[in-house]
Design a protein that fits this description.
homodimer, 375 residues, alpha/beta, 8-stranded parallel sheet, 3-stranded antiparallel sheet, 43% helix
Chain lengths: 375, 375
């Protein structure tokens, strides 16, 4: 439990990398998808079921956990791993994104942000130093620098000043981080959809020096094409030997395109949230199980899938559960979706190792197109 | 999968019996508790997890399943066992109780009942013949006669005429039941809290002849003392060699008292519903996990329990999940509660086999009293 924090790139295919990230709580094969465990639970899943989908690391939310049950409380329970019975690595976000998207009455100044809880209106303060302290209390293997997530759309001036503030906060975050064997801190590139700002941000982070580099402020409405363009221009500015994490992304096609551009890590609520709204990811596209056409379908959700939802139940049964709003619908579809994402990442890693990523990407898009044609 | 339907009493202790009920889909050790799987799912549980708690039979609801997804649809899917991935025995209720408690605009006459669905207001008709047909379509191992559940309180006159109607419906139910190897039908004793009516009802059912006998119309507000008094007077009027089922019961102390009075089978939503409202059953009483006193408690829910909720999580974590309304709270507490009920039935069977039921009952009440004193 005290391995050095490190990143070992085992294979490359174009810009894509197949690596192993070592942390205090275990190793992570990359490219990796991190299921989101907002409130110390990946919703509707037992932790051992999450692991069975191939997930080796999950994400926890500083904002939610500082409000409930409280970071000091989790520390007194032995940290987040022990609290939620997830013995494997955990990455925590810094709280910056949720303060912007969830909290009320935010006031930002140079020192940090004061906000009111979306739960009970109570007032709280987050600074780079406090965010890093919270993530330390949670015992996160990977701590994220505290930043301001630039809104989209933003003028270049607004994006510039927001990014500059995030870079000053990044330096303070790095300074507040207490280095321990197996633990690391990532900086976050900001700069909106403005390539020049992204370059400045990446250079600022390189100067500070981090264990890994995240690309933030994307997947906020700019569209896949713009996102890929920003990645094309930003990723080469990041240190080649460090892991790269695209925050809050995304759909399967987003992950594939980002892996091809050199991204190693992802997190997104999409597979878990979709599992609670009757949406299932399959090799031939997304399926809405509330649709009446599944009501008498004795076939499995995805014949190509070996998850419990696909092995033991019919589409008709899953449709029934969704229509009834049964908890088991959320349990089975979340499991399926995480299994799908886990399988996708495994396939991407294998394709990179085989130097066959191009074929894999083409095959993926062919299957999705055939699925759309058949739907 | 074609065993003869039968009941074998292996041991007795006073009025209590330890038996084995054989059905088309397997054997059931009695006394047995049947988790309720209303809409073709025991809420918040995978079926294999239900089985892991010791449950060998579950209950399905004719009323809910006829409305959604429909009995013919389940039959086309190969029956309820296959539809919901529960390969073990299933008992279905007749729909009578839910028509009274859930449906709108009920009109009862000699032939049956017309009602409007609580889901969409659509009009439906249930007769003894249609109820038995639905249960046949569901492939229930144990079919229940269609009855009118007498409201409580009811005058003796009202209870008498309701009981008499249920007995005429019981004869029609028996006539409509298609006997197959391993499948059986139970009659239901009615008569409210009036011992004389219970005697008349029991005699009427004996004359018709059933594979098992249920006591209905209890646990509707009459209180434990009255319920036990009715059992004391009713159970001896039931055929000794047939299984006896107390419907809709109950709390752990209710089950223990009823087993001591010769009841073999139970069903109740209490362990599953309580699991979704932060209530946990333990050897020392019921615990409300929303209570703030658990917020920092690193101990397990019940040190004496080996279920996943108790083995891998603290009270503080379960408290946190309950406060957040997380699905995992329902999953873990339902699992715990069914594990508790499964363990209670296993202990009752062992006590009967050992001729030590009296000691077991005394020990149970002592532990609960100690728990109350410590709370």
């Amino acid at each position: 439990m005290s391995a050095e924090f490190g990143f070992d790139i085992r294979a490359r295919d174009g810009a894509a990398r197949r690596g192993v990230l070592s942390t205090a709580h275990g190793a992570i094969d990359t490219p990796a998808f991190m299921p989101v465990g907002t409130a110390a639970t990946v919703k509707a899943m037992l932790p051992e079921s999450v692991a069975s989908t191939g997930a080796q690391i999950i994400l926890g939310n500083t904002y939610h956990l500082m409000l409930r049950p409280g970071a000091e409380r989790i520390a007194a329970q032995g940290g987040l791993h022990r609290f939620m019975n997830w013995p494997s690595p955990i990455l925590t976000d810094s709280g910056g994104f949720q303060v912007m998207s969830l909290a009320a009455l935010r006031e930002i100044d140079e020192s940090g942000v004061v906000f009111r809880s979306h739960l009970d209106g109570s007032q709280h303060r987050l600074t780079p130093e406090r965010s890093i302290e919270i993530q330390h209390l949670l015992d996160a293997d990977i701590t994220m620098a505290f930043d301001e997530c630039t809104p989209f759309p933003a003028t270049e001036d607004a994006a510039q000043s927001s990014m500059a503030l995030s870079m000053r906060w990044a330096a303070r975050s790095r300074g507040a981080f207490r280095k321990r064997p197996g633990y690391g801190i990532f900086g976050i590139v900001q700069g909106g959809v403005h390539p020049a700002l992204r370059q400045i941000s990446a250079a600022a982070l390189r100067d500070i020096g981090f264990d890994g580099y995240a690309v933030g402020g994307l997947a906020v409405g700019e569209g896949q094409e713009t996102m890929f363009r920003i990645l094309d221009e930003t990723v080469p500015a990041l240190p080649a030997e460090r892991p790269r994490y695209l925050m809050g992304v995304g759909k399967p096609a987003d992950l594939i395109g980002a892996v091809a551009r050199g991204i190693d890590m992802f997190d997104c609520v999409l597979p878990t949230r979709s599992g609670r709204t009757a949406q299932a990811f399959t090799s031939s596209g997304t399926i809405n199980l509330r649709n009446a056409r599944h009501a008498d379908d004795q076939g499995p959700l995805d014949p190509a899938c070996a998850c419990p939802a696909c092995k033991s139940y019919s589409r008709a049964y899953l449709h029934h559960l969704c229509r009834c709003g049964e908890i088991l619908a959320s349990m089975l579809l979340t499991w399926h979706n995480l299994h799908y994402y886990g399988g996708l990442m495994r396939a991407l890693r294998a394709a990179i190792e085989a130097g066959a990523l191009g074929d894999f990407v083409a095959g993926f898009h062919d299957a999705q197109a055939r699925g759309r044609a058949a739907a």
